[in-house]
Every structure is written in structure tokens, then in C-alpha cells.
User: Fold these one by one.
Assistant:
Number 1:
Amino acid sequence: MTGRLAEPLATTLGKRAAGPLAKMGLETVDDLLRHYPRRYGDPGRLTDMDRLQLGEHVTVMARVARATVRPMRSRGGALLQAVVTDGRHELGLTFFAKRAGALRPHEDKLRPGRSGLFTGVVSEYRGTRQLTHPDYILVGVDADDDEEAMVEASRPIPLYPATAAVPTWRIQRAVRTVLDPLTEDDVDDPVPDEVRARLGLPTRLDALRAVHVPDAAEHWQRGRRRLRFEEAFVLQAALAQRRARTAAEEATARPPRPAGLLDDFDAALPFALTDGQRRVGEQVAAELSEARPMQRLLQGEVGSGKTVVALRAMLQVVDAGGQAALLAPTEVLAAQHARTLRGMLGPLAEGGLLGGAAHGTRVALLTGSLGAGARKEALLQAASGEAGIVVGTHALLGDQVQFADLGLVVVDEQHRFGVEQRDALRAKGRVAPHLLVMTATPIPRTVAMTVFGDLETSTLTELPAGRAGITSHVVPAANPRWNERVWEKVREEVDAGRRAYVVCPRIHPDDDVDVPGSTGRGAQGSAEFDDVPEFLELADGEAGDRAPLRAVLEVADMLRSMPRLAGVEIGVLHGQLPPADKDAAMARFAAGEASVLVSTTVIEVGVDVPEATVMVVFDADRFGISQLHQLRGRIGRGGHPGLCLLVSTAQPGTPAAARVEALAATTDGFELATLDLELRSEGDVLGAAQSGRSSSLRLLRVVKDADLIAEARAEATQVVEADPALGDHATLRDAIAAQLDAEQEEFLERA
Ligand code: ADP
Ligand code: MG
């Protein structure tokens, strides 16, 4: 950014005007021009004043009914009282001053019949609602001549995200001051001319004028669309560059070897692969056989069997003499993967041991909480190549971890890992390893394009045959009869030899806030919290007086003393347990020694106990949709139908209630993912899905702007193909760099 756009606002507007803007994070002309209006006021339509709330900071469009200045007898000084109206209701405006003269200019402006925007905090005086010393702007009054006044009066009024210190029209004025003198030469455009011409888009300057100073609604709509396209285009160009860079890298080809581990594994598999697993498996096998790194996203419904696909890919690589690393988001999941792998491989995982298969390999497990001895052993097996498969958590990213010949990186349940972590692991290969990324839940196509846009996508849509399915119900927490029924049901299932999960949002009843990392991002970076519920902020009016969230330890005690569950062993699992205890708890549950497991969301991803048929989720309304969907995917994995009971304290009609009701209504992960996006803000979605990416997207909406994203992707890919280093597209190059900087910053802040 150079020239006029880079100019500090303090220079352009003066220190006094720039100060409050700086507090909003707006430092330069460019920052201010990217502070887009949230919506637009229609100058012809007045605000319905019946809806104003006491104590609320409001901006209303209203017409002046009357205004009079009078002296105040009791206190001295003068008072201007005005009344504005929406045509039906009235709102008072009150101004005080030492002398009546000081109020004359207001009186002069606030002439009956004029309309304007008034902003202030709503208070009440003798039963009438009013604004004291409101800030205001009158339509058409601040223009120089009549004709201009007419034009100004008919424009849609941009309403900016504002603060009490900087009302929206102060921002509007500041924007006008910096925008009006700009020329096309001042405003470089990251969208190349030929793309703009082809799609019939306005220039960047035109678009800025359209959103900040629109002539009519169609005008700002067109400008906004063009700016959305720009955001999508810059992002897609960055992703296209990333794809092109990795495609140009060299990898080791790892073609299948007949009569190797993979063939043995397939022969021992207790089920037939689904069509989808077979199709994706062939695709992956072919790409692994190429001397160019595979870059693939495997997404699919919960329980669709993504792990088997990944295992088979890993075995192909081991057969070809390479190693595979499997990166899991939690210790529980990493341990389970290692257990499953060893179990499925049997003697094949005992390479080099007495009784192990001749062509066998080893599976090493590396997590943050290993003892020094076990850790050293695992590191050694990875570095020597003795372990063909190394399973781990973030610990795998550490500097001390070396591989003899890393050929494939599998990232399981991607939503807890960012691009940076993927890269850190990829960097451990001598040449670029192949990469397979798996999502925890299905994601809509444009989210895949936006968040995982540097990867090719495969999707598993079908579930393996013989699944009996899951039924879900919302249980109002306050209804004793329903709650009775919950435990009755748990008892019935346990008596039939099956198991139940009971999920709580907190560990300890004394934790006065949520568990660490309650923004759902705690697992980023180095920490290895296993229970990081992805709590949602409560919307306005939802907070109220709520009972404290249920806690694992408290609920376990309650269940142990419940006559209905007499004789049932209740297990406990949460992230603060020592790893050995976590493993033991999981193993006892899997083996049926403890038929009920009270747990945090530590079981959210991937945990696989086929006999588990019931899940009770306390405070279900406080979890995110995809998290609940993922949790629920832990049951009904065997031949018996699953029952998910969502205990909720949400008030009917709130977004929280909408979330749990949606969950109860469908098990279609794609449908839920789309709904999830609609109920949240975009920043949330992208932020939760992956670090970064959100800061540069101000206007773009990943679901609603699907067409635009697809269009931007096609155009950006073409531009990058023709000019991979973007040597002829300096502005685009700068925009990408700025975006990466912002991402990096965000990532560092969060880590
Ligand atoms: P997800 O896609 O959610 O990660 P998993 O890979 O954990 O699903 O698979 C869920 C369960 O289904 C596991 O117990 C797995 O062994 C089993 N499974 C996978 N593929 C098949 C298949 N083709 N037929 C029957 N069961 C399968
Ligand atoms: Mg899985």
C-alpha cells in the first residue's frame, strides 16, 4: 500500500478527528475505506420509535415536529426542547446550555418538517422517552446549494459500525473527506483489468464510491458485490499459488507393492469397503504413486469410515519403504488410533519382534505427556525408520521429532489444526511428503473451497451398510418426568449389554468459568487440552439467570447414588486426568467394565466404541452444531440403533434452541453444516475451522456467496496459471502478502 491510501488519518483528517478512529483500529486512509457500512438507511423511511428500549444507544431516522428554547428558572441557564416523530410516536431531544444564545444554532437547524438521524442513549423524563444532547445530522441541510441538497437528501444513508464516541455520520464525514479527492491513479486494484472487463465489474474506486456514497440501493449493492468478489479473488489467488507451488515440488512416488502390508490388511479386514471407500482409495493410491505430492482433503459424514481410507494409504507408503505420520487432535484419539492400528495389523505391527511378520512394521505413539523413557523410544523408532507409522498429537510437530523417510502425512479431524501446523509436519520430510487431510464433519462445498482451497477434495457420503441409525430428542432440563425417562433408558440399554456416554461441558463443579480455551480454539498452538468445548457466545437475552453448567465430577456422583443405576459401574473421563488414567477409562468403557462413561467433549472426535448406543448431552444448547453432530457420531456405530438425548435449558425461540432442535431433526451432516454457517457469523466459521483467513474477509459470506467464490476461484486459477509468480500483477501480489501478514498475526496472537 503506497500513496494516498497509505496516508495516516492523522495527516488527512487531523489529530482530533483521527484519535477516536484509531481507537476503532482505523489508522490509515485504506483502513477507513475498508470500514464498510453495515447497512443503509432509507432517507424516506423513518424508524419505528415504538421499538426503542430504555438505556439503549440508538440511531433513529425521524422528522422534527417542534423545537423551542426557553430559560430555566430554577437552575439558571437555558434549555432547548425538541420533539421528533416517526409519524406516530414522539421522542424528545433535550439540550442544556448556560445561555440561550448557545442553543440558537440548534434551534435554527431543527426546523419542523426536516428529517435527520439522531443518536444517543434513550432515557425517560416524566414518562416521555428522550435523548439528552443527541448527536444528529439533518438530511440535505449540510450541503452547499439546493440542488446538491436534493441529491444528498435522496441518497441511501450509510450506517457504519460505530461507537458512542464516533457516531456513524462522523465516520461518514471522515470517509467523504478521504474519498472525495481520490482518483483512479490513487486506488490500485488487485483484480486485473482483463478479469474486471470479462465480468463487467466496476473499478475499485467506483466500488468504494458506491458503498460509501451510493446514489441508490442498486448502486451500493453493485459496489458491495464487486468488493466481495475482490476478497474472494485475493484469497483464491493465494490458494492457487499455494497449490501451484506444491504441485511443482517433487515427492517420492510410493506405488502399491503386491503381497505387502496393505494386501494383508485388506485380507484381514472384517468388512467389505463401501463403494465410496473403494473409489477414494483408488484415487489416493494413484496419487501416492506419482512423484508429485498428493494434496487431498477427505471429507465425509461422521462414521463414514474415513480412518480406514487413511490407514490403507499409510500402509501403501510403508510398503513402498516410506513412513507415515498420523496427526490427531487429542491424546485420547491418538492413543485410540495407535491401538486400532496395532489391533488391525496384528503380527504385521510387530516387525522385528519375535513372532512378528517378516515384512511387518511398528506403530509408534508420540504424545505430549509420554514419560521420558517412552518418549525416547518413540523418537528413536521414528528417526531410525523402525516405526513405519508414527501416531501423535501436536507433539509430532516438535523440533526433536525426526523421520528416516517421511512419505505421507495424515491429518485427522482437521478442524483443530491450521495450515501452519500442516506445513510444520510436511517440512519433516526430505522431499515433500504426500498429504491427506480429513475433516471431522462434512462441510459445504464453498467452505471447502475457502478454508481448504489449496487441496483437492474427496467426499464419502454413504455410511457402511448395517448401521441402524441414530434418533435424537431434545429433553427440557426442567421437566422431571423426561429426565426420569432418560436414566430409565440408559438402564435398559446397559442391561441389554450396551453402553452410554454422558457428556458435560465442565469438569469440576467449582470451575466458575468454562474449561480452558472455551473459545474453542485452545487446542491450537502448543497446548494439548483434550476437552475444548466449542462454546458459543450467548445471544442477547439468552443469558439471564441460568443454572450453572453441569460438571463431569458432579454428574458422576449423582449417577453413582441413583437407585435406578445401582450396580452399574460409572467411569469418568476428562482432559485433566493423567494420560494413563484416560487410557484406562477408555479401555474399561470399550471392554464393558464400566457401561456408563461420564465425560467432557474429549470423546468428541473419532472415538470408536461400537457397543455405545446412548448419549446424554447436558447443556446441549451451549455446544455448537457441528460439535454436537460429531459427538453424536460416537453412538450407533454398531448394529444397534443409537439414541441421543440433548438436555437443554434453552428458552424456546432463541438461537440456542434452534441449534438443538435442528440437531434433533436431522442427521444429515451437510445440511447441519450449512445451517451452522447460517446461524453463526462468518468469522466464527472460518476461525473455528482453521486459524487465520477471517481477518481479510469483511464482506464475503461463505454460504450466500457461493457463486461468487466459485467464479473468483476460476478466474484466480487462470491468472496464477498464466503468471505463477504474479510478476505482472503487483497489486494482487501485495494484497496476498497483506492477507498472509494479517493471518500470521492472528495466528501468533492466538498461539
Ligand atoms: P469416521 O469417518 O467418522 O472417522 P471411522 O473411520 O471412525 O469413521 O469409522 C467408523 C466405524 O465404521 C469404525 O468402527 C470402522 O471400523 C467402521 N467401518 C469403516 N468402514 C466400514 C465398512 N466398509 N463396513 C463396515 N464398517 C466400517
Ligand atoms: Mg474419524
Number 2:
Amino acid sequence: MNHFLSTDDIDSLPEWLKKGAALAQGIGTPDLPGQGKTLCLLFFNNSLRTRLSTQKAARLLGLEVLVMNFGSEGWNLELEDGTIMEAGAAEHIAEAAAVVGQYADLIGVRAFAGLSDRTLDSAEGILNGFVRYAGVPILNMESATGHPLQALADALTIAETSKKISPKVVLSWAPHPRALPQAVSNSFLRIMQRMPVELVITHPPGYELDPNLVGTYKPVYDQKKALAGADYVYVKNWSSVQEYGKVLHRDPGWMMNAEKLGDAGFMHCLPVRRNVVVEDAVLDGPQSLVLKQAANRTISAQLALRHLLNAL
Ligand code: CP
């Protein structure tokens, strides 16, 4: 059974990018591999792009779609085995996932990091609970540690727009008033390591990403130095990994502006806080790729759903 849990579920990235480009151009025989099947999307957290692009992609493939805001409308789920359920949780994920698996042929799950316990978040209790108990293919719509649909859309955007064989791509940390997960940055790193790009990571000391994901890449703490000659600048906030979930500082000097961006394309997954993460002039300027990235979410979702349907 195919799942789409991380970018590791993309067997051949060049092949997926080629198929994505063809889908974007409407090339290929229109088929409806999802006809007669149902996709259930479960949101434990808010969403705009993921919610709508995945539904649109599903309908383009002929799938029926059920959507539930599980975080606000579902029962609190127990994730541990053998618990005496006398506290807050009304239902165990074993029953909840198995029940949804009877109503749907495919299940999408969005469940963010809690950012208070790194071990708990790394275990991906909700996503893996659905994998374990639902009995149907599972689509990760952003989990505690990864956002592979976004990363695939980002890779499609670079592949579609790059004028160079090996562009320089900089992942640049940005200030933010709230503690945010590392999911987007993690998946972006993972997928860029499989692209023919020169990858540079820049952030203030203390914001080092998971060494298991960063691999041999050494962060450049001097943002100006890191940005020199960049073709793409992917701006994203994340909270500290070492001091797990903490906002160590909010230095506005790390905000992206037109001068720092130079001639590079500007990328961000959205939603973005204007004039905190990036100034208006960049977001509203011709080098912004954020709407193209969002458009490519419909393509990345079609690719992932086709993978689940064995129709890629
Ligand atoms: N980029 C992204 O996943 O957007 P949403 O959180 O609005 O779905």
C-alpha cells in the first residue's frame, strides 16, 4: 500500500517533476483514477492552501471528498497503547482511524507539532496512528516534522522557473512573533538535497535544524554572505530545535527586503506576516514566486494522490 508521508515517498524526483510539468500544461490523456473512490481530509489544524488545493486536485482525479475539522469538531484522541482513559481523551486513535478507514479509500491528515515535547512530536502520533490503524493509504497534509506536499510544490516551482542548471538556493530564517514548527523547512531541505541546486542555509545561532536532516550542510550565520549570488531565496521562520519550540529572539534585521533579495526569486510557503517576515515591496514585486508556489500545490497534491491510487 502506498502512503505519502514524507518526501522519501517520492521514488524518482526527476520523474515526478516531469509528470508535474505535464499536468500543469494539461498534457496527457485525461483519466479519472479516483472515480468511485472517496478521500477524507482530516484537519487537526487550520489551513487555506492545503485544504482547497487538495480538494481541487482530488476532484480533478474523480475522487469524492469528505472534509472534517477534527481539531475543533472531533473527539480528543488518545494516542498511547494501554492507557486507562480517565483524562481528556474520549476516543482512542485505534477506533477513530479504523472507522474513518471504512468510510474512505484514502485519508489526508494535517496534525502540527505541539512544540512542547520534541520526542512526542518526532513520534508523529496522529499521522502514524492513522497509518497503523486506518488500513488505507495516508496523505501527509503537514505533520509535526514535515510538509512534503509543500516541498514538492516548491521543487516544481524551481524546476519550472530556473534559467540555470544548478541555481543557488538559500533557505533564510526570518523573525516571527510566534513559535512555529520546523516542518516546512525540514521538507524543503530534504527535497532540495535531491535537486541539482547549490543549497545554502542561513539563520542566527541557536536555530540549527535537525542534524539528521541537514546532513553535511553547514549553516552560514552571516545572512548577507549567504545571500550573495542567490537565484532563489526561500524565507521561513522556525522555532529552535535545541531549545525545543522556543523563540530565542526576533531580530528584525533578518526580515527579507528588496535590497537583500537582489535579483533572486522570493519564495515562501504562505501564510506570511507582511513587514515582519518580508517587506511589502518584495511580496508585491515581480520577483515574488509565492502565488506560483501556491498554484503548484494543486499539482503536488495530484501527484501525491496519484501515487496513493497507484496511478502515477
Ligand atoms: N502552505 C500551506 O500549507 O498553507 P496552509 O497552511 O494555508 O494550508
Number 3:
Amino acid sequence: MAAKRIGILGAMPEEINGIVSLLKGRSEVIKGMRTYYIGTINDIEVVVVFSRWGKVASATTVTHLIVEFGITELIFTGVAGAISKDLNIGDIVIANSLVQHDLDARPIMKQFEIPLLGKTILYPSEKLFNIVVSSTNELIKNDGLANLFSLSECHAFSLFNQKVVVGQIASGDQFISSSIEKEKLLKVIPNVLCVEMEGAAVAQVCYEYNIPFVIIRTISDSANENSIIDFKEFTAKIASKLGVIIVQKLVNNLKNDFYH
Ligand code: ADE
């Protein structure tokens, strides 16, 4: 079988540091203000990099991973703001579809249509998606992740009731921090679960280069007036550890899939 090389793109520097510490035989390449960490996790070749924030930055980083490092699949992890009322801080969302909520070339095209692709929604590769859903569910069963944190952190961030949810993620170059903005988004994208600033851009690049991808997001805030406080606390205390565990488990499961 052709060699596999997984690109691991993270939206939080803290998360990247933790994932980098898992690497064996590590080397680094610095290019375009980004540091690419190359090595293996459980004998699988990986390249780990901080995406930087926003659609342009993350699209540039994933293009570099594909063209310069020859990755064969892409895993993206980070945090997101909840739009759906059913989501709590700490829940894990795995994208089954992605849309760029700030892409609007009307009246030339439909709202959200990606120029020249003629698509408004992009989908992750089914096989990778299924592996991510099952490995993340395995992780959280029986409070599996709660024991990584103190009791007070578990209560503060609902980590005893954490759930994995599959659905649509919307991305745009905007940090959503008001109930009015949330309502506006829900009106035009009624199925959206959560919002962030990179996923759909990364999906577009992977689609254009035919690279299987999956986008995993942990809810850090409710995209409302409290979001900046919640976001800062969650990313500092929780997200960094969660991302590492999710990636470690996933790479182990992918190894079984690749080589057995
Ligand atoms: N990432 C995490 N929370 C977010 C929010 N509220 N808006 C956009 N991106 C986010």
C-alpha cells in the first residue's frame, strides 16, 4: 500500500504543542511564518502545524501541507462557538458538511456558492469521517475524558455530560459574539451547529486537491455576549488537553484501518 502521511492542522497553538510532544523522530521546517513538525505517532508519518487563524491563513497552511509535504489525509482540530441550542461547552462536533457563511457573490451566484466549484456545501470523506466518529465516541464513553481534568473544571465545563455530535459547521472571517449575530446565521443556515473561522476553507482546498479530510471542533463558547470570556478560559484550561487525546486516539485507529 502507498505510504500514508497525515497532516494534522490545529487552530490553537496550545493544542499543537501537546500534539508535537507525541512525535517520535521529530524534525522541523520553518516556512511562511509557520513551523511544520514532522515525525511519527504510533509509527504513522505525520506533519503537525498551527493553521493560524482565519480562512486565508488556514487555506495557505493546508495548501503547503499538500504541495510541499505530500500529505495523504488531513485532520483538523480546534474549538468553535455553539449556534445550536442543543450544544454545551465541552461538546465535540464532527463536521458532516461545511459552508462558508461569509461567502456571498450575489447576484452573480447563489449565497454561499464557492466561485467556479458551483458548490455551497462541502462534505468530508466518508471513510475518515466514520473512523473519527467512532473513535471520538469511544473516548468519551464512561466519562473517559473527565478524568483528565479537576472536579471543578469538569463541573465548570460540563465535562461529565460531554457528547459527540455530527452536523454542519459554518466558517467565516468573524468571531461571533452576539445573540443577534447568531440569530442572523440561523436564519440563513438553519442546520448549522457551530461556527468557527477555518474549517470550510480547509475543506475547499482539500476538495480541490482530492485529499480526504475531517474537521473536529470542541465547543468553547456559545457565540454570545459571554463568548470571549468562555473562549479564553476553555482554550487555556481544556482545549489544549482535549485536542491531544482526540488526535492520539484517532491516529491509533487510523493505523488499524491503514495497515490491517
Ligand atoms: N471559534 C471559537 N468560538 C468562536 C466564535 N464564537 N466565533 C468564531 N469562531 C470561533
Number 4:
Amino acid sequence: MRMVDIIIKKRDQLELSQAEIKFFIEGYTKGEIPDYQASALAMAILLNGMTSRETKDMTLAMAHSGEVLDLSNVVPITVDKHSTGGVGDKTSLVVAPTVAACGLPVGKMSGRGLGFSGGTLDKLESIPGFRSDLSIEQFINQLKAIGIVLIGQSVDLAPADGKLYSLRDVTGTVQSIPLIASSIMSKKIASGARAILLDVKVGIGAFMTDLSEARKLAELMVEIGGMVGRKTVAILSDMNQPLGKAVGNSLEMVEAIETLHGAGPADFKEHCLLVAGYMLALGGLAKNEDLGKSLAEEALMGGKSLIKFREMVQAQGGDIRYVDQPSLFTKARWIEQVKAPQSGYLAEVNARDAGETTVLLGGGREHKGDPIDHAVGLVIEHKVGDWVKEGDVLFTVHANDQVKRDKAVSKILNAHRWCDEPVDPLPLYYGKIG
Ligand code: URA
């Protein structure tokens, strides 16, 4: 078999066989297939799509590119969650400790920032010392000991996704339903989750901008989960405006810690409780998601989620003083508050512009493996539908470069669209599948 023939076949809109998909994934994982051929195939898949059979084969090939954990002897059940990626989406940082604090173990493999959307690992690594590169043995031991562990893509679990994910980030091949579905589901299968809650984001700041496309992605992932015997539910949630206020790694970490302390923005807290409620229902700790949500709220407001988060940070080498005192996080050199230039109702706060601006400030990657600046980003004060008075604080830019700061100010001013008439707030959800 030759890689070039596989690329040509997909370029010509033909269906790849299971053997061809396996050949690509195994060869790419071993380093026998170079990045340029993998990029060409990723682009052909993005342009021409894949059938659900091809996507399922791709998912399983990626899951089996490393070890596939069986945690049934370690904990009774593990539930995982995964977001398809959004702007200001720091949900895992609050949800994972909340669910674990309720008694349901969470062993989660998270990703890094991808394109304009942030990644949980990049956020966690803004805590000095925090390690996400645990071995499988360490992953299992920590899950057993404290019921929570959050790791990165390891060389042992779904390594094919690790390589492909960073390649897609810099080759314009993120927005593809089969590539996203196989990337997410391969990680979930490899890390041993028995039940999975998928948070499928839809809107201008998501990879799926269209509701029907997002629904297709959700349905495909729920179908793949079912095929491999994992209870899977997907919710469709809004990503037209940033979730919460903070966008950028340590700023989001601080917002998540504030939420764990019982404060934090209302939309973000509501989203975390909903996701946690579904996970608790999936894991059998609550009869339904509403009861799960109440359990989660008790844990969050009673301080148990914070204690669990602190335990996890400590177990993974992070400096817990940052959890107790978020003011310790390194600040950017320029912190510029921008006031509303007029009064009016907000008709749009463009999440995509916010994500792209954070990348421009240095908070995301332009090239595979680039270092990122954890301190930079934005704090956006208002939501669609808010009435804002001229002179109120509209947003704050955190920058380490003056030219980038000025560009960010103008881009985020333009990301706000005004209206004289009242505007309805955006819904948080558009439904569930599974
Ligand atoms: N999240 C993932 O894990 N993979 C993708 O491809 C997109 C979002």
C-alpha cells in the first residue's frame, strides 16, 4: 500500500477501506508517513468528507494506536466529558472536580488549544509546576487514590490523535465533522470512559457554526459511542459569544478558580452545573440530569469541588498557593481597560474575534508546538442583550506587546455590535442527543 494512493483516492471522493485507514494511522503514528502526506489527506477528508463507516474505522484505528485502558478493576465506573471546542470554554476545570467531589471518578484526557479555540491543558499549565504528562500507571494510581486525574495526550493513549490534532491546528483542517468526531471519540475510548457527555458547541466561535452541522457531529459521535458500548449523550450549546468573561489561559484559570470559590460569571456557572448534572446522571449517581444538577450545585457551593480541584493540582505537582490566591498568577505587562464608546443594547459579542485576538496576543499557536503566553487575553464584561451605558467598562486587554495590544483593542471594539432596540439574550442550549 502507498500513502499517495490513499490521498488520491480521498481526493477523488472515493471511500477508504478499513485497511487503508489503518495503514495511514499506524504509519503516521510510527513516523513512517510524513506530516506533508498526513496534511494532504486531512485536507482531502475536510473537503470530501467520510462515511460513518470510515469515521468509525478512523476512530478505532486512532484509539488503538496506543493502549486502550480498561478501568473496570480500578473504579466502578468512570464518566468523561468533552467539548468540541469554544472560546472561553473552561468548563472541565470546574466540572471534573465537581463530579469527582460527588463521588463519581473522573479520569480525563484533555487537549491543547486548537486554532482560535482554547484547550484545558494550556489553561492548567498556567499553574506553575502542574504536570499533565503522567504515565498510565500514574493516571491509574491517582484515579484510585483521589478520584480525579486530568492528563494530556500521552504517547501511550491515542498517540495518533495527538499528532494529527497539532497538525490540523496549523493546516486549516480542524473544521471537519469526521476528523473532529474521530479525534474526540478515540481519546474517550482509549482513556477507558464507560459513559461520555459530549458538549457540542455551535455558533460563530465554534468549529460548527451551523446548528444542523453541529447536530450531525453530535449524532455521529453518539452513534460511534453506542457502537463501542459507551453510554453517550451530547448536548448542543451556544458558542456565538464567549462563555463566561475571560478568554486566555491564566485569565480563564483564574475565572474557573473564582467559580470553584462560589463566585464566577452566571452563564459559566450555569453551564458547568448542567454538564455536571448530565455526567452524574450518566454515571448513575442521580436519577436524572436535574437531580444531578442539584447534587453538583451542593458540591460547588459547599466548597467540595474546590477541595477536589486543590487535591488534583497538588497530586499533579502544581503550586496550590495559586488555587488559594489566584492573584499570584503572572500578569501581562499592559492591562488596558476599554470603555463603551456609546450607549445601547448589545446585539453581538463575536466569540470568534475574541478567540482569534487571544491567539494574536500570543495566547494560542500559529505553528505546531509553538510556546504560548499564558498571561495574555481578554476579559469581556457584557453579553448579548445587555444594555450598556457609554463609559461603562466594555472589556480589558491583557497584552505583553504594545502593537498587539492596540490591534486587540480595535478588533474587540469591532467584535461588539450595537442596537438601539432591546435584543433577546442568546439561549445557552439548543437541545440534546442520545
Ligand atoms: N476537540 C478535539 O479533541 N478534537 C478536535 O478535533 C476538535 C476538538
